[in-house]
From TrEMBL:
UniProt keyword annotations, A-Z: Ribonucleoprotein, Ribosomal protein
KW Ribosomal protein (keyword) present: yes
Family from the record: Belongs to the universal ribosomal protein uL30 family.
Superkingdom of the source species: Bacteria
One GO location term (cellular component): ribosome
Protein name, as recorded: Large ribosomal subunit protein uL30
Keyword Protein biosynthesis: no
InterPro entries in the cross-refs: Ribo_uL30_ferredoxin-like_sf, Ribosomal_uL30_bac-type, Ribosomal_uL30_ferredoxin-like
Subunit field text: Part of the 50S ribosomal subunit.
Organism: Methylobacterium marchantiae
Occurrences of domain Large ribosomal subunit protein uL30-like ferredoxin-like fold (ranges): 6-56
Length: 63
């Protein structure tokens, strides 16, 4: 069975944000606007997305 993945796009700037939010974006492999990252759908990734939900957009659930 293939693992589920999520495609995430950064839509907000980390400027004037807390350091932990900037580090979370880097952990999601995002660090510039409109960059897209494909990550495995795990509870830890979901938690990271929840932490910076105002800076990212989940594009779709890729199979």
């Amino acid at each position: 069975m293939a693992t589920k993945t999520l495609r995430i796009e950064q839509i907000g700037s980390p400027i004037r944000r807390e350091g932990d939010q900037r580090a979370t974006l880097i952990g999601l492999k995002l660090n510039k606007l409109h960059r897209v990252s494909t990550l495995e759908d795990t509870p830890s990734v979901r938690g990271m997305i929840r932490k910076v939900h105002h800076l990212v957009r989940v594009l779709d659930d890729a199979a």
